[in-house]
Design a protein that fits this description.
Helices cover 99% and strands 0% of the residues. It has one helix at residues 2-189. The protein has 190 residues and is mainly α. Keywords: Coiled coil. It comes from Eolophus roseicapilla. Residues 9-85, 122-166 form a coiled coil.
Length: 190
């Protein structure tokens, strides 16, 4: 029994020693944990300060976001108004373009009829021009024949003048002869 107690006692001592070691380890762990907690508390302070700063910044950003949303809604309203005005101006412009197009189409039709009339006039003028050229050609031919005739007539006239001159000369000569004959005749009668 005594031995069993010794054994159990040694067992208990070992167990106590083990527990002391575990206690020392636990104390060391507690100290480490306390140091860690202390470090965490020290680290927590700047994080809390940073968190406060971030919260303040978040509040400011939310205010900015609300302000930007208001600005965005105003801008969207202005864009809608601008788009409506743009649509109206485009519709007006399309109406003007259509009116201008119809005016240009009618003007084009009028110009086409005018071009048709002018082309007919041009054709008739071309025909007249061709006729006048033919007449001009005929008249030139007539003129050339008339010039030839004139030259012939000039030659004939010259010949006639010469003949008249000869006849006058003969007539004068005959007149002299006749006056002499009459004088002879009177003399004979006397």
């Amino acid at each position: 029994m005594w031995e069993e107690q010794l054994k159990s006692r040694s067992h208990l001592e070992e167990r106590v020693a083990q527990l002391d070691r575990e206690k020392a380890e636990l104390l060391e762990q507690c100290e480490n944990e306390r140091k860690k907690v202390k470090k965490l508390v020290e680290l927590k302070r700047p994080v809390e300060l940073r968190l406060d700063q971030e919260m303040k910044r978040n509040i400011e950003l939310q205010k900015d976001c609300k302000r930007l949303k208001r600005l965005m809604s105003r801008a969207m309203k202005k864009v809608r108004v601008y788009e409506e005005r743009e649509m109206e101006s485009q519709l007006n412009l399309q109406g003007e373009v259509k009116n201008r197009y119809s005016e240009m189409v009618s003007e084009l039709g009028r110009l086409r009829t005018k071009v048709g009339d002018l082309s007919q006039q041009l054709e008739s003028e071309c025909k007249k021009c061709i006729q006048l050229e033919a007449q001009n050609h005929n008249l030139r031919e007539e003129l050339s024949t008339m010039r030839e005739n004139q030259e012939k007539l000039e030659k004939s006239r010259c010949q006639l003048k010469e003949e008249v001159a000869k006849l006058k000369h003969h007539l004068e000569a005959n007149m002299v002869d006749r006056s002499q004959i009459e004088q002879y005749k009177r003399e004979i009668e006397e």
